[in-house]
């Protein structure tokens, strides 16, 4: 009798459980969305991807400018580091050691990714990018119409093509059908290197490795050549020794084939004494680079931060021309124009305010010296830096 009672109780519980599970299934089915219509399917297709938009929903650091640059092996990363470390000095700090302006380098690939990051990431404000590459993105509308979403702060330096080759390769034409590394896919080196080889009629077997792996491939013979596009001298190339047998291969400049987008340039012994012998030189091609910025709405928090960044960078620009910084700074002309693009308004305004020329600068410097003792010549550079910081705090004087 006890067994039968137990069985009846178990059966009763099972029936209740089955009824409850059935209700849950019905609820799930009732909540299941209807099948997508053909039009909905088309909208969700990655082939119809919408124009990328800036991430403004999350709050970015209101004191930090996000600076997208190239890989750590390239000169563009060194330029960003120069800006970050220099602007970090000479600022008055708050009660907890905070500063009004920080610059945070963000590692990119120097190519399309840099532009996309500035167009989409909330914390990315500026980027160094090749002018020819950004022009192409605008013309082809790869990311839609970027004319109103991107602006420029200033043209920068030129970036040279460095074509490293094994000792058995004597000329560019000998690379036909050989394995050549052009850099990571989507990088400026890969996109523009492919274009240069095609224009010059040299068909290669392309590889897409990073700089370290490419150098290792050259040494082991897995690659015949490797391309690196960056401003000379590139510190990464100090790893290359003449004992490796690796050399810099000339890239002939053709006005007919390259003039529209590329410039002639030369690599010399003083640029790379570890690769180029004394009195020797290597002809190559180059491209222009510029400092681009996202066109934040006027009056927004990020716009004001970028305004502060420009005022600080431009005012302290003479500091970057010394030997402690990369030689490429000496190629920079802040007032140079970038045809087809609009300059960031605070940058344009700052340049217009400086149009009074050297006479106005000397007059302001004289007012600054009124409260200073006469400086000895060795102290003049330090005094000038004080003067620049004084002008930043007293823009109306």
Tell me what the structure shows:
With 397 residues, the chain is α/β, with parallel strands linked by helices. It contains 12 helices and 10 strands. Strands 1, 2, 3, 4, 5, 6, 7, 8, 9 and 10 form a 10-stranded mixed beta sheet that branches. Helix 11 (358-369) packs across helix 12.
Uncertain stretches: 1-49
The number of distinct structural domains comes to: 2
> Helix/strand/pairing class, anyone?
alpha/beta
Distance between the termini: 106 Å
Helical fraction: 25-40%
CATH superfamily of the largest domain: Periplasmic binding protein-like II
How many helices? The count is 12
Element-level helix/strand string: HHEHEHEHEEHEHEEHEEHHHH
What is the percentage of strand-forming residues? 15-25%
Q: What is the name of the CATH topology of the largest domain?
A: D-Maltodextrin-Binding Protein, domain 2
Task: Using the 3D structure, state the CATH architecture of the largest domain.
Answer: 3-Layer(aba) Sandwich
Q: What coarse outline follows from CA principal-axis ratios?
A: globular
Report mean pLDDT, rounded to a whole number. Answer: 81
Please state the CA-atom Rg, rounded to the nearest Å.
29 Å
> What is the number of strand segments?
10
Largest sheet: 10 strands, mixed
């Amino acid at each position: 009798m006890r067994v039968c009672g137990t069985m009846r109780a178990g059966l009763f519980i099972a029936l209740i459980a089955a009824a409850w599970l059935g209700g849950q299934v019905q609820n799930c089915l009732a909540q299941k969305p209807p099948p997508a219509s053909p039009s909905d399917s088309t909208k969700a297709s990655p082939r119809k991807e919408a124009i990328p938009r800036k991430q403004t929903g999350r709050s970015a650091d209101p004191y930090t400018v996000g600076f997208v640059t190239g890989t750590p092996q390239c000169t563009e990363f060194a330029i960003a580091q120069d800006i970050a470390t220099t602007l970090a000095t000479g600022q008055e700090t708050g009660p907890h050691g905070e500063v009004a302006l920080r610059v945070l380098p963000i590692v990119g690939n120097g190519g399309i990714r840099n532009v996309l990051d500035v167009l989409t990431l909330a914390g990315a404000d500026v980027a160094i990018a090749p002018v020819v590459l950004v022009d192409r993105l605008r013309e082809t509308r790869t990311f839609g119409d970027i004319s109103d979403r991107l602006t420029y702060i200033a043209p920068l330096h030129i970036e040279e093509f460095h074509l490293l080759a094994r000792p058995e390769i004597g000329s560019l034409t000998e690379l036909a059908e050989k394995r050549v590394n052009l850099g990571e896919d989507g990088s400026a080196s890969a996109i523009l290197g492919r274009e240069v080889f095609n224009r010059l009629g040299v068909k290669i077997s392309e590889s897409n490795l990073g700089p370290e792996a490419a150098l290792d491939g050259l040494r082991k013979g897995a690659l015949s050549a490797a391309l690196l596009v960056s401003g000379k001298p590139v510190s990464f190339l100090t790893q290359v020794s003449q004992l490796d047998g690796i050399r810099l291969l000339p890239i002939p400049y053709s006005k007919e084939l390259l003039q529209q987008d590329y410039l002639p340039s030369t690599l010399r012994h003083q640029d790379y004494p570890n690769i180029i012998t004394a009195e020797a030189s290597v002809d190559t091609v180059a491209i222009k680079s510029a400092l681009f910025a996202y066109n934040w709405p006027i009056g927004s928090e990020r716009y004001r931060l970028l305004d502060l960044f420009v005022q600080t960078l431009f005012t302290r620009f003479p500091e970057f021309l010394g030997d402690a910084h990369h030689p490429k700074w000496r190629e920079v002309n802040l007032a140079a124009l970038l045809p087809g693009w609009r300059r960031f308004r605070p940058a344009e305004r700052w340049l217009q305010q400086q149009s009074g020329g050297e006479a106005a600068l000397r007059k302001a410097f004289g007012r600054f010296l009124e409260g200073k003792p006469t400086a000895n010549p060795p102290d003049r550079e330090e005094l000038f830096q004080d003067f620049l910081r004084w002008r930043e705090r007293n823009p109306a004087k």
